[in-house]
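Reviewers of the previous submission asked for a worked example of the structure-prediction workflow described in the proposal, so we include one complete record here. The input consisted solely of the amino acid sequence. No template or homolog information was supplied to the procedure at any stage.
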Amino acid sequence: MSMDGTPMVGIVGSGVMGVGTAQSLVQSGHDVVMVDLNQEILDRAAAELARNMRLSRLLAKPGQEQAVPTAGKVSYAVEYDALAPVDFVIENITEKWELKKDLYPVLDEVCRAEVCFAANTSCTSITRLGSLTARPAQVIGMHFMNPVPLKPAVEVIMGHHTSADTLDTAKDLLASMGKEAIVVNDSPGFVSNRVLMPTINEAIYLVQEQVASPAEIDRLFERCFGHAMGPLQTADLIGVDTILHSLEVLYEDFNDSKYRPCPLLRRMVDAGLHGRKTGQGFFTYQT
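From that input alone, the workflow returned the following structure tokens.
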């Protein structure tokens, strides 16, 4: 807990979502402890966070500049012991069960008994994650959308054992970040990705079958449906590799062919065309 009583939050995983969540927390006055596998990854995350914070201040309207001091609000560590003082943990690691199943027992050991764990996941079952810990009532899902600082709401997922107290704690934290909690029940893909992932996958099939180009597909959604961004720009923003991981989870959990990843999607991931973060996905970006 900070000196002013603001909860200190641990962030596990410093990729795009981890950095975005940390930025949103710092800008709302929280101290953050960020943990990842090695110092090189953390140095890259620190540089990205600093760049995003500068950009946020530059783009702020007059009178809306961030008044909260941000210097020294984030500490970085490669050891999970650094999470001992935090009041809440948000996990942001890759959507791979093999990685998540090893993490949660460790969090159980290093965090105080009253600390809640939130999985920033787009697909993984919160109930299944809760089964990895001795505190399943304190495990909840927080599906943040990218870019985190600009999104006003978060999909919050109740696991089978998630308690009302944990939900209240999660809602309070999100409210302190200026975000609305939209609460749903646990199911693979929850609500947002259960709808979004098959949509993106089908759009990729259309590209593979040369029915239309990525630009034409996206323009239909933007101009005809009024979407701010088409499905393939959305895939690039989320990360083409993340889309594949999410579809694989849905395919495995439902055992339903409608979630079978498009072969073009697999080929793009193998080729390193992961979207904005690599500079090339369905579209080209300046890195």
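Strands lie at 9-12, 32-35, 74-77, 88-91, 116-119, 139-143, 153-158, 180-185. We consider this example representative of the routine output the project will generate in years two and three.
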